[in-house]
């Protein structure tokens, strides 16, 4: 299985900060990468797919980039609603795998 | 709007069985590939398996930890997805979500909790 590693595991930031989360794949996955946002007690929500395409309705302060094995999720100006856990997922292989998650908490 | 509603989660003893259901609405269920994804308490997400739409063959695939123990099926007439879980282990304790999508998980249900403990 393709292993996905996110860093950092936890990130402390303030409203208005620019935030970047990294996701690395154990082998090339082209741009078959998605990002999800999950709030406590809730189901994940798809934010970005194919590494950089925003799902409909997702604010433009979210952006994704990368290809091959290294990917980033950037929030250009952190808003109160953005404090959550973010998960990356590769869907290049027949068996999709997720990263361990990055919790974005209030500094 | 797409709606997915899971049910069937419960407390079960190791070695026991459980069947989860996911009722879908708001889209053409018979054309959809469906997945089960789980999340152990305080942990990350883990893909469990998928079932293709019948037009695409209706076949199933499973993650290694559940292969041979879990079975995914669907009833398109009831727009319902199922997960039959046998020989349950303590490490199967998790919230189980059904999702739509081919590989990608576009829509998610609210989840149902399965606890495996003696």
Tell me briefly what this model is.
The complex is a heterodimer of chains A (107) and B (118). Chain A has 107 residues and is an all-beta fold. Helix content of chain A is 0%, strand content 50%.
* Structural Rg of chain B: 13 Å
How many DSSP E strands of chain B?
11
Order of helices and strands of chain B: EEEEEEEEEEE
- Give the count of helical stretches of chain B: 0
What do these coordinates show?
The complex is a heterodimer of chains A (107) and B (118). The radius of gyration of chain A is 13 Å and the shape is globular. In chain A, 0% of the residues lie in helices and 50% in strands. The mean pLDDT of chain A is 97. Chain A is built from no helices and eleven strands. By secondary structure, chain A is an all-beta fold. Chain B is mainly beta and 118 residues long. Chain B has strands spanning 3-7, 11-12, 18-25, 34-39, 45-51, 60-62, 70-75, 80-85, 94-100, 107-108, 112-116. In chain B, strands 2, 4, 5, 6, 9, 10 and 11 form a seven-stranded mixed beta sheet that branches. A four-stranded antiparallel beta sheet of chain B has the order 1-3-8-7, with no helix packed on it. In chain B, a hairpin with a 6-residue loop joins strand 9 and strand 10 (107-108). Chain B starts with a strand and ends with a strand.
Which SSEs are present, and which pair or pack?
The complex is a heterodimer of chains A (107) and B (118).
Chain A: E1 4-7, E2 10-13, E3 19-25, E4 33-38, E5 45-49, E6 53-54, E7 62-67, E8 70-75, E9 85-90, E10 97-98, E11 102-106
Parallel strand pairs in A: 2-11
Antiparallel strand pairs in A: 1-3, 3-8, 4-5, 4-9, 5-6, 7-8, 9-10, 9-11
Chain B: E1 3-7, E2 11-12, E3 18-25, E4 34-39, E5 45-51, E6 60-62, E7 70-75, E8 80-85, E9 94-100, E10 107-108, E11 112-116
Parallel strand pairs in B: 2-11
Antiparallel strand pairs in B: 1-3, 3-8, 4-5, 4-9, 5-6, 7-8, 9-10, 9-11
């Amino acid at each position: 299985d393709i292993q996905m590693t996110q860093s950092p595991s936890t990130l402390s930031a303030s409203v208005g900060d620019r935030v970047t989360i990294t996701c690395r794949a154990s082998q090339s996955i082209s741009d078959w990468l998605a990002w999800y946002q999950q709030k406590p007690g809730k189901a994940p929500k798809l934010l970005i797919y194919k590494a950089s395409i925003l799902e409909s309705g997702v604010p433009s302060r979210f952006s994704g980039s990368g290809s091959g094995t290294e990917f980033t999720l950037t929030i250009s100006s952190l808003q109160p609603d953005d404090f959550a856990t973010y998960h990356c997922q590769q869907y290049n292989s027949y068996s999709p795998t997720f990263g361990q998650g990055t919790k974005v908490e209030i500094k | 709007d797409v709606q997915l509603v899971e049910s069937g989660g419960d407390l079960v003893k190791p070695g026991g069985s459980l069947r989860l259901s996911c009722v879908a609405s708001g889209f053409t269920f018979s054309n959809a590939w469906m997945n089960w994804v789980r999340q152990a308490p305080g942990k990350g997400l883990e893909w469990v398996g998928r079932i293709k739409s019948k037009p695409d063959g209706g076949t199933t695939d499973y993650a290694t930890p559940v292969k041979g123990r879990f079975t995914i099926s669907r009833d398109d007439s009831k727009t319902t997805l199922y997960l039959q879980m046998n020989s349950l282990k303590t490490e199967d304790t998790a919230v189980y979500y059904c999702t739509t999508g081919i590989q990608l998980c576009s829509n998610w249900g609210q989840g149902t909790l399965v606890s495996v403990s003696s």
